[in-house]
Structures are given as C-alpha cells and as structure tokens.
Amino acid sequence: MSHKIQTLSGYFHEYQKSVLEPEAFWSRIAESFHWRKKWTKTLEWDFEGPNVKWFVNGKLNLTENIFERHLYTKGETPAIIWEPNNPDEPNRTLTYSELYRLTNQFCNALKAQGIGKGDRVIIYMPMVPEAAIAMLACARVGAIHSVVFAGFSASSLADRINDCQAKMVLTSDGNFRGQKQIEVKAVVDEALTKCTSVQKVIVLQRTHQPVNMVTNRDLWWHNAIDGQPYEFEAEEMDAEDMLFILYTSGSTGKPKGVVHTTGGYMVYSYYSFLNVFQYSQGDIYWCTADVGWITGHSYIVYGPLLAGATTLMFEGVPTHPHPGRFWEIVDKYKVNQFYTAPTAIRALQAYGLEPVEPYSLSSLKVIGSVGEPINEEAWHWYHDHIGKGNCPLVDTWWQTETGGIMISALAGITPNKPAHASLPLPGVQPVIVDAEGNELTGNNVEGNLCIKFPWPSMLRTTYGDHEKCKNVYFSTYKGMYFTGDGAKRDHDGYLRILGRVDDVINVSGHRMGTAEVENAINEHPKVVESAVVGFPHEVKGQGIYAFVICDMTGRTEESLKEEIKETVRKIIGPIAKPDIVQIVPGLPKTRSGKIMRRILRKVASKDLSNLGDTSTLLNPEVVDDIIKGAGL
Ligand code: WT7
Question: Which residue among 398, 494, 540 has the greatest number of ligand 1 atoms within 8 angstroms of its CB, and so is best to mutate?
C-alpha cells in the first residue's frame, strides 16, 4: 500500500510535503479512493467563520470505498470478527461480501421505513455487528447517524434525539455487559416520552428479555429486514455532506453535536489507521472501545474497513468472566494490533500478573493507548507485560472534534518515549501558545495546544449552532483551532499532552463537563448550589468530586450523598456519577460571585500547598470549613 510510511526519514519527508503543499499531499491520498465525480478544488478554508471544505464538489459514497472497492480482492476476507460478552456463546465472522450483503439489506429496510438522504438516525445499541451494519447502512442511504453510548440515561438520550430531531432510533431489547443485563429498550421508551420527532424504532433481539413494543412505531430488526434484497445502489453524496453527528461534553452545560462530513473523514480515518498501526493485509486488529465514542467510529468501523482490514469487535468488559479476558481474546484470534485506554490498563494492572501469565500474547506486533494521558507506570506495565518489551506502544492523542489521531508515534517507526504522544501525523500542524496566543517556537516550551491549519477530518460545525462551534474552538486564539488541552514540547521536540485546561474532566477516558454534572446535581430538590471538579484517581485517571450546599432537613448526610449520586446517574448515566460528594456550608467565591475552582481542585486532590491568597474571597471563612469537612 503506497500510503504507508515505512521509515523515520520517510515520515519526515511526508511531513515536510504535507506542510509545504497540503493540497497536493491530500489530493494524492484522496485519489486512491473511488469518487463518482472528482473534486474541483482540494481545500477552501478560513478559521474565522469557521468555514472548512475539503474536496469541494467531489461526489462519492463512503461505503463504496469499503465494499465495491474491496470486493473483488477481499470478498472472502473477514471484515468483522465478533466476540460476545459470554465466551460460551458462539462468535461470528463476517467477510467483506457478507457485510456488504447485510448492509445492503438493512439499507432497504431503512428505506422501507421512510429513511432517506439527510435524515438523522440515532443508534443506541450494544457492541454487536449490527451496530456497525447500522452505521454503514445510514452512510450508504445518505442518512446521518448519531450513535449514543448505550450507557447514557433516558434523559441524555432524549436531549440528543431532540437536538438533532432524529426520525428513527435503532436499538436492542437489552444489552449484555459483564454479569449485567441492561434494559435498553425501556430506556428508549422513557426517552421517547419527551421526543416528538421519532417516527420509527427498530429493535434488535439480543437478550430476548420481554419488552414493550409500541404499535405503529416499533418493529423488530428481523422483521424489518425480512424479504429485503441484498442489493442496494448507494446514494451519491457530496464530499461535504454530513456523515455523522457525535455528541460530546464541553465546558458549557449541554453536550455539543460534533459534525463530521463524508470526504475528508473518509480520507483521514483511513490514512491515520494505516500509518499509526502499520496495518498489513492479513493482520487481525482489535480496538476495545465502544462504537458510542469517536474511537469506535474511526478505529473500529470506518478506518479499518476503508483499509480492507479485519477488525475485531468485543461486546463485553475487560474483567468478565475473569480479569484475563482481554488476553484470552488476543491469543484466541492471534490479534496483531491491540488498542485500548489507560484506564483499562490500570484496572487490569491492579490484578497483578497472574491473569496475564496463562497467555502467550506472541501475536501482538503493536499496542496502542487512547483517551487520556497514560502515566509512566501504566505505560511500562503495558509495554513490558503485554507488549513483552518488543511491541511499539503508540500513545495516540486526538479528540471527538479531530475525527482521527493527530499526534502519535507511527508504530515501529517513531522511537517510543513513555507518556509522550510524540509527533504530529503528516498534515497536522500543532502549535503551543501562551495565554496571549503567541506561538511558542523551539523546544522546551509549555502552553496551550492549538492546530493552525485544517486537516481533512476536522469538525465542520456543531449541529444546529455554528456560533457555538466558533466560540468554543475558534475564538480563544485568533486564526487557530483550540484543543482545550495543555501540552509541552520537550528538549527532543516530542509532544507531551498535559491534560485539559478547561472545565472538562476526563473520567476513564470519557469526557465530562463539570457544568453538566452540576446541572444534574442541582436537579435534586434539597440542593442549593454545587461545584464539581476533577481529582487524581488511581484507575479512572480523574474522579468526580462534588462540593454541594444542601438543605439538610429530614435527611442524614449519608442518605443525601447517596441521593445526589443517584440523581446524577439517573440524569446523565453511570459514567457521570460523582465518586465523592462533600456537603459544605458555602462555596468559595470571588467578589464578582464566581466560584474559585482552583481552591476546590486543591482540596479535592488533598494538596493544600499553594492554596494561594484567599483573603480576596467574598467568604474566606468557608475555605477552612471545606478543608475540615474533607478530613484534611
Ligand atoms: C480528550 C478528548 C480521542 C478519542 C478518545 C477521547 C484527552 C485523548 C489522549 C492521549 C492525553 C488524551 C485529551 C482530549 N486525550 N487522547 N493520548 N494523551 N490525553 O475523545 O472524548 O473527545 O476526549 O481526551 O484531553 O482533549 P474525547
């Protein structure tokens, strides 16, 4: 494959070209795809609008570049290997030609239920091949999918449905997750009491638990596809037509619908997959993410399938039925590239080496990390005990908004450096800026991470609110995309990501807005005011710490804390549940009434050094109460 970089000097050469002549660089890669009509202009952009268009006027369907392009050579190659939650249940393998037929069949089912170009379809499903089929079928009929992680609550689901005015929901009766069986359809039913846009719900039978089916609205997946033909002519899309919306949390209270478009996302997810993981034909690649997150979109479904790869999909969790489950799967399928999150590594590390020892792991060639900074201890454990000291470890930095991996070693090409994402991919122009937005050039500098030139898979807008996109990402520093992360360029020129500098916390690799959690807490009738901050957590990376002012009448402190945690679980979902709730008499405020989160962060991380000057506070006396209340 000609787009695969082979050597370090080859990387530097490609990088140079991509900066000097970005349009020629990306054109050459895009030309290897099948376009119904070639683009007339490679790139049109300004970061003021922002307005970014790649492959202007190009016409294509992304799925023709997965199916029609590969079928003659890879029809019998496994596209998806599926491992169920329960190891005793049979696994499944779908070849490219089988996946093609099932996708087409589901396209016909979608059409029969009134879905066409531009319609929004919510996917709220377990990690089964049908989730990928659903995404691909949407892309093939020209509908815009929005996958919602099936752990989100009914009210989070309803918010997303309403924001994009989805016409259909694809779901399942229930999901298997470790020892648990989750009532997914019941959550959809509850969400839909607050939504009017949804006309049809298609329900996949997974757990066979009894569910309520609403007449004229709900139908079973197996009935929807029954008798539908296995052929479907793909819809012609413009390169800039929306491919999907994915909701993600930010500093503001409400999650934003990040919009990705067809042509650029296709080119970049393919190119980054191939180069970061150094995928070779015949390899078995496994990413442990869920399709509800961007990692699942770009590196379980789109990137690998566009590259004609074999992608493994796992329904379960790392510790069920035993903490060696991941390693058992690696050996079972002879996985060559393995991609997971630091939080999973730390959780498994806690079980010691015993669960790892029964497995050889000798098929592994590349191991990868994503979602949060990987601490050095976890890096070494992963590198030494899983990679056996001889697999390159790619620490991949990127975001929902970037669509694909931006800063990472290329496996086996870029020298590894623990806890450093390392170097930008070709086409990516990161800059570190100071508070005033001045670019800090040279090595040994630290500041905020921005990107100064467009790349094909960057977000185009936030759904239904372009102003928000402009304000959140393009207004902090003029003429640049601001990532929200801090970063350091070390003495070798390697980049190290330092974590979020805004009010976003990263819990087990999942993004949570502090304002979003506060809004949920404030729904509890006894809560007067709350402030949420992150604190260092051994397994999750960051935990959620809530300081809450409450009316205590009729409650004990313990019961109220539990009620507050439960409220958040109910409103957002289990991933947002605070680890610690502290009831406080007041919150430290500036004279203008702003909460001084800096002080709360210090208390939450049990670090009382450099508390700073608290005398300028409106209510300095509460600080002592809070410190005492925290048991410090
Ligand atoms: C935020 C984006 C990208 C897919 C998963 C998360 C943090 C992500 C790394 C890494 C340090 C990382 C950043 C980023 N992050 N990868 N390798 N090293 N930090 O996507 O939910 O959009 O979150 O995750 O803080 O801004 P996301």
Answer: 398
Instruction: Give the dihedral of Cα atoms 570, 572, 576, 580; nearest 10 deg.
Output: -50
DSSP state of 439: B
* pLDDT 10s digits, 144-166: 999 999 999 999 999 999 999 99
Closest protein CA for atom 21 of ligand 1: 511
Provide CB contacts within 8 A for 358, sequence distance 6+: 324, 327, 328
The predicted structure's pLDDT at residue 616? 83
Q: Which atom of ligand 1 is nearest to the CA of 249?
A: 21
**pLDDT value of position 610:** 83
Dist. CA 497 → ligand 1 center (Å)? 9
- 251 CB near ligand 1 (under 6 Å): no
Report the C-alpha gap between 489 and 485 in whole angstroms: 13
pLDDT in tens, 200-241: 999 999 999 999 999 999 999 999 999 999 999 999 999 999
Distance 345 CA to ligand 1 centre (A): 16
> How many A from CA of 283 to the centre of ligand 1?
26
pLDDT given at position 484: 96
CB-ligand 1 contact for 506 (6 Å cutoff): yes
Does ligand 1 lie within 6 Å of residue 402's CB atom?
no
CB-CB neighbours of 361 under 10 Å: 18
Residue nearest to atom 11 of ligand 1 (CA): 373
Chain segment 415-449, per-residue pLDDT in tens: 999 999 999 999 999 999 999 999 999 999 999 99
Percent helix, strand, coil in the chain (nearest 5)?
A: 30, 25, 45
| Residue-level pLDDT at 237 | 98
Q: Is the CB of 343 under 6 A from ligand 1?
A: no
Q: Which pLDDT belongs to residue 615?
A: 81
290 in contact with ligand 1, CB cutoff 6 A: no
Is residue 421 in contact with ligand 1, taking CB distance under 6 Å?
Answer: yes
- CA–CA separation, 357 and 136 (whole Å): 38
- How many other CB atoms are there within 10 angstroms of residue 81's CB atom? 22
Pocket flag, ligand 1, residue 130 (CB < 6 Å): no
Residue 1, pLDDT > 80, answer no
Strands of 445-451's sheet, edge to edge? Answer: 430-433, 445-451, 481-489, 495-500
Residue 241 CA to ligand 1 centre (angstroms): 26
Tell me the average pLDDT across 269-284. Answer: 98
Which residue lies with its CA nearest to atom 1 of ligand 1? 399
Q: Which helix (H) or strand (E) holds 131?
A: helix 129-141
ipTM over 0.95: yes
**Rounded to 5°, angle at Cα 297 from 377 and 292:** 80
- List pLDDT tens digits, range 524-580: 999 999 999 999 999 999 999 999 999 999 999 999 999 999 999 999 999 999 999
Tell whether ligand 1 has an atom less than 6 A from the beta carbon of residue 381. Answer: no
Q: Is 154 helix (H, G, I), strand (E, B) or coil?
A: helix
How far is the centre of ligand 1, averaged over its atoms, from the C-alpha of 506 (Å)? 8
Predicted model pTM: 0.96
**What amino acid occupies position 145?**
H
